[in-house]
Every structure is written in C-alpha cells, then in structure tokens.
Write a structure and sequence with these properties.
47% of the residues lie in helices and 14% in strands. With 237 residues, the protein is of the alpha/beta class. The strands form two sheets. It has a four-stranded parallel beta sheet, with helices on both faces. It has a four-stranded parallel beta sheet with strand order 6-5-7-8, sandwiched between helices. The radius of gyration is 17 Å and the shape is globular.
Length: 237
C-alpha cells in the first residue's frame, strides 16, 4: 500500500486545495477507497522566491528536508510538493530523501506532450521564471514558451502574493491582463505554474486552457498509487 506525504504550507490554501483535489479526483465509492495521506503544513518554510533572487539569505532547503524527513518517518513512500518554485531544490531533496518525490514540472510537461501542445504560456513566481526550471524542461521537449512582459509579471506576482497568499479577493483585472498578453502571443495553453494560482482557477471556474499544476500533481499521485481517475477529470489523461 502506498502512503502519500505532502510538504505543505507553501502556501497553505494550495495545500488544502491539493487534498480537496485528490479526494475529488479519486474514483471512489466510499471513504475506504480514498488514499492514506499525511499533510505536513509547515508554513515556516522560508520564502523560496526571496532566497532564489538573493533578497534573503534564509535557505528553504533545510526546512524542506525537515518536513520531508518527518513524512518519511510517518511511513510515507511518495511525496508531493504543492509549490512549483520549491522544485528549484528538487535535486537536493532527491539526494537526501530516500523516497519517491513527484516532480510536478516533469509531470506538467508530459501532460502538454500528451495534448500535442507546441507553444505554451507560463504564469509563475519571479523565482520560477528567473531560474528557468520550467523553460529548460520545455525546451528539452521541443515546446516553445511565452512568459509575461515586465508589467504583466508584476500582475501575476500581485495575484499570488497580495491576493491569494494574503487572503484577499483576487484582482481579476490583473489576472486577465496577464492571461490576455499570453494568449495574444499565440499560447495554445497557459500553465498556472504557481500552486497559489490553482486557487484562482477554482474561484474563477477557469477551463482546461489553464493547465493547473495542482491538478497535475494530484493526477500523478493517484497514478502512482494505482487509483482510477474520476471521469470529471478525464481531460488530464
């Protein structure tokens, strides 16, 4: 039996939504058919973007390892990380944790290949954009990428930090302006490459044009655990 661990708190709403997605996405007839899951909501983990951009010397890797080891000690043999920017530290986590850690960037790119998407837009944190952790994987798979210009990247960061992370209403105009910019650059889909943007998709009821990394992570977890996917999420196959 697989036991899933989640390194949570980056942010907390995204972690809660991942659990909701896993439950909804599982083709289960009763509680007993759901996954065994441990969420370590650890909001004290230092801000990933601030560290990556040199705005802080507080390295999140140590807290990520504390959380990962806690989950391993709880008997988890699969770990999911509902924070895309934290995947900057993925290779280090793999070295130090003897457990299957799902890489949501790899899983998202594989989804785009299944859908024959050759050009995609990306909404993500400054940390994710500047480290090019998505760009490199997309390039390896011959998928062209469009990122927001400076003004629209500020819009995206506003929605992530000032809206979702701060518990405020979503500034729909800022999100739509960034989205329109990417659409006008002929993006066949837009990756919501920050798990806080999954909250935007949920609240605005966005369609599958917006590729939700939390949905991709939930799908990958269920596949690893040999669970069938609810037909409402068949578009992820």
């Amino acid at each position: 039996m697989k036991k899933v661990g989640i390194i949570g708190g980056m942010g907390s709403l995204a972690s809660a939504h991942l659990y909701e997605l896993i439950v909804k996405m599982t083709d289960a007839k009763n509680d007993q058919e759901q996954l065994e899951l441990v969420i370590h909501n650890y909001p004290a983990i230092y801000d990933r973007t601030d560290y990556i951009l040199g705005k802080s010397f507080d390295n999140p890797i140590y807290q990520l390892l504390v959380s990962g080891n806690h989950l391993v000690q709880q008997g988890c043999n699969i770990i999911g990380i509902p924070c895309v920017t934290a995947h900057y530290f993925y290779d280090l986590l793999k070295i130090h944790l003897d457990v299957d850690i799902i890489n949501v960037i790899d899983e998202t790119v594989q989804y785009l290949k299944r859908k024959h998407i050759s050009k995609v837009g990306l909404m993500a944190t400054d940390g994710t954009i500047q480290t090019e952790i998505f760009q490199k994987e997309l390039e390896r798979n011959d998928i062209d990428l469009v990122v927001p210009d400076e003004h629209n990247q500020r819009n995206v960061m506003h929605v992530i930090y000032d809206d979702v992370k701060s518990g405020n209403d979503i500034t729909i105009s800022a999100f739509n302006e960034a989205s329109t910019y990417l659409q006008n650059k002929n993006a066949q889909a837009i990756i919501l490459g920050c798990t806080d943007l999954s909250i935007v998709k949920k609240e605005l009821n966005l369609d599958s044009y917006y590729v939700d990394c939390l949905e991709i992570l939930s799908y990958a977890i269920l596949k690893r655990c040999h669970k069938d996917i609810n037909s409402n999420y068949a578009y992820l196959n």
